[in-house]
Amino acid sequence: MNTAAIHSLVRQALREDRAAQDITTLSLIPARQFASARIIYRQEGTVCGHRLAREIFRKLDPGARYKTLVKDGEEAAKGSAVALIRAKTRAVLSGERTALNFFGRLGGIATHTHRFVKAVSGTGCAILDTRKTTPTLRDLERYAVRCGGGQNHRFDLQEMVMIKDNHRTACRPEVDIAGAIRIVRAKSRRRIVAEVDDLEELAAALLAAPDIILLDNMRPAMVGQAVAIRNRLNKSIQLEASGGITLRNVAHYAQAGVDRISLGALTHSAPAVDVSLELDYDPK
Prior knowledge:
Layout lengths: L2 H14 L6 H6 L5 E8 L3 E2 L3 H11 L4 E4 L6 E2 L3 E9 H31 L6 E3 L9 H10 L13 E3 L1 H6 L6 H11 L4 E5 L2 H10 L3 E5 L3 H14 L4 E5 L7 H6 L4 E3 L2 H4 L6 E8 L2
Parallel strand pairs: 6-11, 7-8, 8-9, 9-10, 10-11
Antiparallel strand pairs: 1-5, 1-12, 2-4, 3-5
């Protein structure tokens, strides 16, 4: 995300939590009191969230000092500190939850993605996200995917053509997958992804030569057959597997020979990492 977008998101998040009106902290903590604090990963995981956390504490205390110990995209051991903060105590306490929420959510996506990337290591297969992201937070969640070693699929509807089942249902019956590819090719210079459900459709799509063919909800054995057909008809077209893929079976799909695996689960089902803030009292 660019700097302006981060500033805007942080302002919105702090406004949502009414951080400037934290009645507990304002009642108990003197305005001139300072504190040091550590952001702690309570489990092993991939770090993501420093730019947001730094901006949160500096919004609440412009003089806040923030030191990164484990960078975004690096692995944190269980119990390790990933950042140090020195700021007014009010700023630390009022920004704590907002910062931890970002670390937990983004670190969760990065960690979940990294597990999939590790599972297919050595196969040459790329792990990609999808557009199944939280509305308005796509930039952020896709950054977390990259921190985990994954790659980003098309960002939005205008970036790439993607012919899916509902597009074909909405077309007149005589337009098959090959026909749909040719129609789009005549109207757009964008890259084309065509979704197929079986090997017959795959063969037809290969002859129409899209850039990528998405194998939807195929089992690994059928994916292996699809790879063999692709290799025989047009090796330049990439094959992407999607649907029904989990950490338990992702290696089987990669070993079947696809070039890419796309997973909505990277963003919509990633469990948050357990992260906390530990404050050290400083009367100065």
